[in-house]
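Data deposition worksheet. Section B asks for the primary sequence of the deposited chain exactly as it was used as input, without tags or linkers unless they were present during the calculation. Section C holds the resulting structure in token form. Section D is free text for depositor observations; keep each observation to a single sentence. Incomplete worksheets are returned to the depositor.
Section A, Depositor: J.P.
Section B:
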Amino acid sequence: MVWFETCGAYAESKKYFGIGWGADREAAARKALDTCSVKSCKILVAVCEGDK
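Section C:
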């Protein structure tokens, strides 16, 4: 489980993962990819408060 304010995202590769949060979906996704730190990481989910 991951807690975030506003928007959050999760990225992973075969060996690594990253999580991110931000004011919008794109900012959260960028941070998740940055924390995953390998080019093979892909965003699996990005959600914002109020998404249904």
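Section D:
The longest strand covers residues 42-48.
The two ends are 18 Å apart (CA to CA).
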